[in-house]
From TrEMBL:
It comes from the Bacteria. Homodimer. Pfam families: Amidohydro_1 (PF01979). InterPro entries: Amidohydro-rel, DHOdimr, Dihydroorotase_CS, Metal_Hydrolase. Its cofactor is Zn(2+). The active site is at D248. The modification N6-carboxylysine is found at K100. This is Dihydroorotase. Belongs to the metallo-dependent hydrolases superfamily. DHOase family. Class II DHOase subfamily. It catalyses: (S)-dihydroorotate + H2O = N-carbamoyl-L-aspartate + H(+). It comes from Aurantiacibacter luteus. Zn(2+) 2 binds at K100, H137, H175.
Length: 345
């Protein structure tokens, strides 16, 4: 049994770095493991134009700890009023790597999101024309759709019809959580891919609800039944280039999660690679880890793979109960659990 694993340096194709003191406290955890990351734009107010994205990019770079090389890839938050010309301008200037569709009300800071995809029709036509990736939070928000069904209903009502109308649009179905999500991406064309988070590979909804309600296991889309977790594990470890790493690391202060109305989001950045690797090892797929973590994402986005490598080594360690970001306490994914691989750098 090999004691170390060396792969091309990975990228995180979906992360929330926040802003201000929280940004300063969390960005190093991502920059330590990943060369690049798709930075989600759901700040308050959201990043909806080129000037805001460029300013945010500069704040991120200023917050990266000394000695770490890290390239934030910026995204444009789409609203009902997004100007197609602004999206084109940002993409052509190299500021926007992608644009993000948040259905209004679907998740954290999505109040200014899109109320009907018909409202961004021209933006999406422009994106299809210029080859720009649309990142999608794929959940409907109607009160009459059960929260556990919202991803499957989104595919049926929104995503499938959208791709039928714009068959060349490049789409990353973000943080998929269901068997339906896996099947949809597998049967779609090469212009459709998906990110998968570590938490959705590790936990099902029991982890959140059995023996007490566990706010640190709550994120959106919510973890689902065991059969969905197993479908996601098969997808992530199966070698298909349509599935790649996107942590969806989403820090919220401990007290904002341990609340009568706790925030959605799991902070997994500090041990992201260790967490994914535990899954690949359990599935007997260590040889497929590099593809998922470091090769499939760049290939889909049309970017070069990273030149340097990272090494993980076998060795048990316990994930701390708490990590601080400035004054703020964050409870990391796997808090208090033992993991079997360590990131060496
Ligand atoms: N995933 C989450 O549960 N939360 C994310 C938003 C998102 O990615 O939907 C956040 O920004 O907190
Ligand atoms: Zn989301
Ligand atoms: Zn997210």
């Amino acid at each position: 049994m090999s004691e170390t694993l060396t792969i091309r340096r990975p990228d995180d194709w979906h992360v929330h770095l926040r802003d201000g003191a929280m940004l300063a406290g969390v960005v190093g955890h991502t920059a330590r493991q990943f060369a690049r990351a798709i930075v989600m734009p759901n700040l308050s107010p959201p990043v909806t134009d080129v000037a805001a994205a460029e300013a945010y990019r500069q704040r991120i770079l200023a917050a990266v700890p000394e000695g770490m090389a890290f390239k934030p890839l910026m995204t444009c938050y789409l609203t009902d009023r997004t100007d197609p010309a602004e999206v084109r301008r940002g993409f052509e200037a190299g500021v926007f790597t992608a644009a993000k569709l948040y259905p209004a009300g679907a998740t954290t800071n999505s109040a200014s999101g899109v109320t009907d995809v018909a409202n961004i029709r021209e933006v999406l036509e422009t994106m299809a024309e210029i080859g720009m990736v649309l990142c999608v939070h794929g959940e409907v928000t109607h009160a009459d759709v059960d929260v556990f069904d919202r991803e499957a209903v989104f595919i049926e009502q929104i995503l499938a019809p959208l791709l039928a109308e714009l068959p060349t649009l490049k789409v990353v179905f973000e943080h998929i959580t269901s068997e339906e999500g896996v099947q949809f991406v597998e049967s779609a064309g090469g212009n459709v891919a998906a990110t998968i988070t570590p938490q959705h590979l590790h936990i099902n909804r029991n982890a959140m609800l059995v023996g007490g309600i566990r706010p640190h296991a709550y994120c959106l889309p919510v973890a689902k039944r065991e059969k969905h977790r197993l479908a996601l594990r098969r997808a992530a470890t199966g070698g298909s280039p349509k599935f790649f790493l996107g942590t969806d690391s989403a820090p919220h202060a401990r007290e904002a999660k341990e609340s009568a109305c706790g925030c959605a989001g799991i902070f997994n950045a500090p041990y992201a690679l260790e967490s994914y690797l535990a899954v690949f090892e359990a599935e007997g797929a260590l040889d497929r880890f590099e593809g998922f973590a470091s090769l499939h994402g760049p290939a889909f986005y049309g970017l070069p793979v990273n030149a340097d490598t990272v090494t993980l080594e076998r060795g048990e360690f316990m994930v701390p109960d708490m990590i601080t970001a400035g004054e703020t306490q964050l409870v990391p994914f796997h808090a208090g659990e033992t993991l079997g691989w360590r990131f060496r750098g």
